[in-house]
User: What shape does this take?
Amino acid sequence: MYLAIIIVYTLALTIIFLYSLSQLNLLFGYMKSKKIKEINIPKFDLSTPEETPKITIQLPVFNELYVMERLLDNIALLDYPKDKLEIQVLDDSTDESVSTTAKKVLELQQKGVDIKHIHRTNREGFKAGALKEGLTKASGEFIAIFDADFLPKPNWLKETIPYFKNPKIGVVQTRWGHTNRDYSLLTKIQALSLDYHFTMEQRGRNFKNHFINFNGTAGVWRKECIKDAGNWQGDTLTEDLDLSYRAQLNQWEFKYLEDVVTPAELPLIVSASRSQQFRWNKGAAENFKKTYKRVLQCPVTPWKTKMHSFFHLLNSSMFILILLMAVLSVPVLYIKNQNPIFALYFNITSVFALSSIIFFINYWVSYKSIHGGGFKNFSKYIGLFFTYFSVAMGFSLHNSIAVLEGHLGKKSEFVRTPKFNIKKISDKWKENKYINNTLSPSTIIEALLTLYFAFAIYIGIKFEDYGLFVFHIMLFVGFGFVFFKSVTEKL
Assistant: This one.
């Protein structure tokens, strides 16, 4: 039994360590990209009608009562020739937002905006189905996509469209910003995570010519690229990742713009974050199952790109390893202190602490790129980093369930993330009709895990072994936070 626990525990540590090395490689790419200035990049001259392409903006929405008016008003402010711009509201809604959206669309039409309200009576294919249907009616050569909570700046199209003069580019993706970053501790740690993805990972991969993903919103597709890659498909919960890989396997290039920021709303409450995390993590696992064999067998894809694609597609599966490592860490603590024969093994495994150091450095570089350096910001970062990783581990049970469902092929509905249109802590959100007021079945287990890691802290003190002490405190705090917030939000 001891040997089995040690083997599984070591395997989890090893894979996480290899994943951290791939992230370290992205750090090198990111740092190098910062030192190189792009020159002689072909771009459309949008000051001339001949080089100004027709654009279709697609707004896929479903029951977005609280943010639709803000979205449509904002999109109408985009600075682009009116005769070269059309807007599609791809509305799958089933509530009163259908009529309020239709009224707002009519108001904008009367002001001269080329906007159409396309309402489906079914959600076949969910978001992918709506985008695919809208594409059949789109007159634009390029398709810009925004989710309901995204607020692009007026010059957004003029900052993105010019790059499509290069006929090889199929997608231009921009960085997400956050309208409510400082609303709460939950939004701050979500911002830290997303900022890391949209700086280190996206730019690092793009600079090295590895596969990146369109993030579902705040980006532009070449219509020809969508069709060449097989169009939108609704067989995974992350249709954006799916189409991105199919397009890049067909030799289309993606352009990532870190300096073009598109603000959006972060989930305010744990239940909303659960919905988003579940969809993203399950969808990533589904895409690994669907796509990786083709990536591995692609004769023109470099081996380094295949390696990064493996960890990219398997990213969400790290939650299973984290949960496994966390649960096994308590019996490992017993084995370590009651079986001196394993002393050499535990001395060797201490090298895996490098994984934590790598993540700490990577996230700091990402944080510094947005907030700046200095002792004050570094001090803030330290607390935020440990809080983020504690809560991320607290979500590991919930996310592991999502990942397992994805790998096992269990299908589920595309559950939207409720939007609130709230920025101040004093604003009320409990009246939001889209909040899921039922407790997740995993909440009870999260409560038990909170007690389990409290026991782990006690065992560490009893044995006077503090090697895993910080790790167990983070797990206790993380699972306790997720459990406490999940319960209190319902009250």
In short: Residues 2-30+316-488 form one domain. The chain has two domains: 2-30+316-488, 45-304.
